[in-house]
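Please go through the protein record below and explain what the tokens say about the fold. Record follows.
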Amino acid sequence: MKNKYVKIYEELSIKIEEGDYPVNSLLPSENELVDLYATSRETIRKALKLLSEHGYIQKVQGKGSIVLDVQKFNFPISGLVSFKELAKKMGGRASTTVEDFAEIIPDAFLKEQLKAADEDKVWKVLRVREISKEKIILDKDYLLEKYVPNLTRSICENSIYEYIENDLGLTISFAKKEITVEEPTEEDRRYLDLDGFVNIVVVKNFVYLDDASLFQYTESRHRPDKFRFVDFARRKIN
């Protein structure tokens, strides 16, 4: 049997998803929710904590719980965030399917992107990211085997970055990114739910270790209606 706070969380999350509590509105106060669900303040606080952790609300001191737009997800442009880290904020709404995993000899294009030598081999990983039962991201990862040995399909289903940092003991340091808007390819349409969409957002990542070794080239292909690509900038006057 589910705990009462989990049931309250599930009921409130459904109401948010269905628009009963609009984006940027306030949820009822803790006192109101205590009365509404005939439960304790501690139970309500646990339910609100789950809502916050899963990206449904933002608690603001002095105001209450502000409803967030659960139909769009923030991707920081300047950060290096794995999908698993993003998925943790969404609870059970996110999943990954590995569609292709192979060790390949890079063609001329991949050699150029990865600055690979003739003898270098590359891991090719094709993963589809599903959120709320919609396939909305196609990640095409290419990793130099000499930096990321013994990669497996199971690791790719979980987290490649977690494997690199925790198992291999390497430090992922920085990335160069290119963002473009393109027409979907046949591959995009095969793997993603793109009915009615004529463009996708493509984020190309060139990812480096802390010794400045380029080890990964990625094309992350996003359905445009589900994401905000956000950054923080500070004006500097000389």
